[in-house]
Amino acid sequence: MMLYKLRLNDLNNEKPVRHYPSTDTNPCWIEPNEFTPLAKSTRRLLRDAFDERFFCRYYDDAKMAKTSYVFGMQQNLHPIYKSPRLNLNAVILLVCKQQRLGIREACDKREKVHEHIRDQLRTLLNAVANPSDAVDPPPLSPTPVYSELEAMFAPPQRRSAAVVVNQMQRCVDEELDRWKDDPMRVERLESGAPESVLSFWRLVEHRKYYFFLPRAVKVLFAVPASSCQIERDFSVSGSMVTSQRTSLSQHNIDMATFLNRNGEFVDLLECEAIK
């Protein structure tokens, strides 16, 4: 959710930016009219690049169809952030407004994105579920004896695979709908921090509140948020991403590596404040 908060506050040209030496007890803000032209341009370019790579699904129909909605599916199965409707809608409306879209059109695109997320979530749930999960085994009964006319004109009907699939789909949809309105809360540690998502769903699965959703959670939350850790583990220097395995340019990689190992050249505490 930090991405939405970043877009709503720090990358919003109409809002001030928090000054780096400010604290929670003594906050200090830089108003937009105090920015230098360079700072304004940098903020705008960062906003546009961020929208193009993350929020484009809310205003570009072509990218809406191609986007991977892993983040959205994770959010839908998160016990705390599954329904951040108010602030999330504010971010979507802000992005669409800067793309010259009206409120009604922005709301329509938001609903389309939600439909894509639900469809992909249903696809995942169907993939992790077995057809036998939703079908009770039929009771044993004696084999009937059919007459010649019955065998010729009224053969016994077999349960088709489509019936099994439809029944499993109804079970999946029922769990999704029930989870959407479920007021179940996470446990809090002594420090006040919430338990992890996997711990929450482990308990849910143990108590058998849901059958299919915990399986999807194991898949979704096993997806790494970033490949940086893997890149660092297998990179040449052992602590920096190489240019062959990232989208960063070669000179940026070299400069970042140099400054990381030679801190005496640039003291961040002595840099001038961004205005």
UniProtKB/TrEMBL annotation:
It comes from the Eukaryota. It comes from Phytophthora fragariaefolia. This is Unnamed protein product. GO terms for molecular function: protein dimerization activity. Residues 175-262 form the HAT C-terminal dimerisation domain. It holds the Pfam family Dimer_Tnp_hAT. InterPro entries: HATC_C_dom, RNaseH-like_sf.
